[in-house]
Amino acid sequence: MTAHVATLPQEATADGTVTGGGFGHVPVLADEVVQLARAAFAATPLGWIVDCTVGGGGHADALLHALPQARLLALDRDPEAVQAARTRLAPHGERARIVHGTFSGVAAVAAQHTVRPIRLVVADLGVSSHQFDTARRGFSLRLDGPLDMRMDATCGESLADLLANVRVEELADVLYDYGDIRRSIGTARIVLESVRGGATTTGALAALLERRLGRVGRIHAATQVFQALRMWVNDEAAELDAWLRDAPGLADVDGTTLACITFHSGDDRAVKQAFAKLERVGLGERRGRWERATRKALVASAAEQASNPRSRSAKLRALRWSPGSAPDGDGGAA
Ligand SMILES: C[S@@+](CC[C@H](N)C(=O)[O-])C[C@H]1O[C@@H](n2cnc3c(N)ncnc32)[C@H](O)[C@@H]1O
Predict the structure, then answer these.
(1) Helix H segments across the chain?
(2) Facing residues of 215 across strands?
(3) Is the minimum distance from the CB of 103 to ligand 1 under 6 angstroms?
(4) For the chain, how long is the longest CA-to-CA vector?
């Protein structure tokens, strides 16, 4: 598995807060997401957008501006993101509803808020710049913070808690599966040696990893280790699987669009495979078919990549629901 490695922005103050730009996250592929939304709302301006990862509200704000009659249901598992998005989207008044929750539960949240018709469901995976650049959250290699890495620090186990009990083989699997780390047993031993030897901060762990593993080209060897640990702490693969299973069921009108932005090759592969299956088999009992809204994955333009290095690893895939006709492949509704 090849991990896309994002270059992290570095303008942070001593307490780890990003300077300038408020929440500090620049939305990726925002024009492309807005274009998909315009197509999904082409027949009528009314309907709902479900933003499964609202973050600082960058995509949400752009969508609400572009589609002045659309309404938005947005969620995020990070209470700080929910707060930031509520502040940013406040000028849109009742058009924007922001809820704290994981996107594995998006179907239940949408049912609870009776949002119909839904014209766009979008997920922009991974971490926000705010999370990376806030030292106390414990995501950063460059800013010293606690070994935490939880997107929602109100629940679940922190990285320190997980590392206290994990077996070396189990940790090696995490590093191999989510970080593409070949010498995973050796690297897992270094991580455990560090924390069991008393390291309690990201800085101490990163320093030991760099000393022992060096750099791969310009990339800090610890970057991939940190990425793998973050995906493990937040159970990101299971979250994505659940979203890929349940979010398609939200389709209810002609043109409902399902869009997903990934930053990691394993996530992109999961999305690609799940979308290919949806194209083949549709939604089981329900009459209709999913068609590609983009011929292949969209990537950021050269200009966007130059201005926002996070966008370099982004891939956007999207499908469009068309009720009434059956899929070509096996298992389609009669
Ligand atoms: C890349 S940021 C989204 C940025 C946002 N689209 C914007 O324009 O500001 C990813 C966000 O997804 C959230 N997130 C990640 N996994 C999640 C999950 N399983 N459920 C809900 N939110 C999640 C993170 O907390 C983070 O705020």
Answers:
(1) 30-40, 58-66, 79-89, 106-112, 129-133, 159-165, 168-179, 184-196, 202-213, 221-233, 236-246, 265-281, 302-307
(2) 220
(3) yes
(4) 62
Give the model's pLDDT for residue 324.
82
Nearest C-alpha neighbor of 280 from the set 248, 253, 312, 306: 248
pLDDT number for residue 5: 34
Q: Is the model's pLDDT at 327 over the cut of 90?
A: no
Q: Is residue 256 part of a domain?
A: yes
Number of compact structural domains in the chain: 2
Q: Are residues 116 and 258 in the same domain?
A: yes
75, 77, 137: residue to mutate for ligand 1 pocket, most atoms within 8 A of CB? 77
**Whether residue 220 has its Cβ less than 6 Å from ligand 1:** no
Indicate the angle between helix axes 236-246 and 265-281, nearest 10 degrees: 20
Residues 223 and 251 in one domain: no
Q: Is the CB of 137 under 6 A from ligand 1?
A: no
Q: Does the C-beta of 134 come closer than 6 Å to ligand 1?
A: no
Residue nearest to atom 22 of ligand 1 (CA): 76
260-291 pLDDT, tens digit each: 999 999 999 999 999 999 999 999 888 999 99
Distance 315 CA to ligand 1 centre (A): 15
326 Cα–ligand 1 center, Å: 33
Q: Where does a domain end: 188, 212, 233?
A: 233
**Interval 109-127: pLDDT, tens:** 999 998 999 999 999 999 9
Answer yes or no: is 106 within a domain.
yes
51 shares its domain with 69: yes
Q: Is residue 80 part of a domain?
A: yes
Q: Is 82 in the pocket of ligand 1 (CB under 6 A)?
A: no
**Residues 183 and 242 placed together within one structural domain of the fold:** no
CA pair distance 88, 299, nearest whole angstrom: 26
For ligand 1, atom 25, the nearest C-alpha belongs to: 78
pLDDT for res 67: 98
Of 233, 253, 275, which closes a domain? 233
Its pTM stands at: 0.90
- Closest ligand 1 atom, CA of 85? 9
